[in-house]
Specification:
Elements (H helix, E strand, L loop, with lengths): L1 H4 L11 H13 L14 H13 L6 E4 L3 H13 L4 E7 L7 H13 L2 E5 L15
Parallel strand pairs: 1-2, 2-3
Helix pairs in contact: 4-5
Length: 135
């Protein structure tokens, strides 16, 4: 288990590693099986390996990522595919106001690879909600 947690905190401060590992083991024993790596540290390869290790150990049924562009999404998909791990979702900011060429390219790559796109902020941080009015 330490292998995929090492991506985020273990190894950053050797004095805290044992205690962090104990906490991690406890939450896994109690059923936690979702690990947010949004603020994780370590190399991208270590993160990819950690995600695949979680799948291999039966801790998740697939992998989902957030804020990946087209290039990184394609690279991660290739890596996970070699290990037999499904990349199910990518979450990006996607709305009528955020359809930039980069966002649309990410969507196209996701569509091509069979990865479901999850939109966050579909109302453009509230701008499309009708709640914002000029004084």
């Amino acid at each position: 288990m330490q292998q995929y947690w090492a991506v985020s905190v273990i190894g950053q401060d050797k004095e805290q590693d044992a205690e962090l590992q104990q906490v991690f083991n406890l939450v896994v024993q109690r059923g936690l099986n979702l690990f947010d790596t949004a603020d994780s540290y370590g190399t991208e390869l270590a993160q990819q390996a950690g995600l695949a290790d979680c799948y291999d150990q039966g801790l998740c049924k697939a992998v989902g990522v957030s804020n990946f562009g087209a290039k990184r999404l394609r690279q991660l998909h290739a890596y996970l595919s070699k290990r037999g791990v499904p990349l199910a979702t990518v979450q990006i900011q996607f709305s009528l106001l955020s359809r930039t060429p980069l966002v649309l390219k990410t969507k196209a790559v996701a569509d091509e690879l069979g990865i479901r796109l999850i939109s966050y902020s579909p109302l453009a941080l509230g701008l499309l909600s009708g709640s914002w009015r000029s004084p």
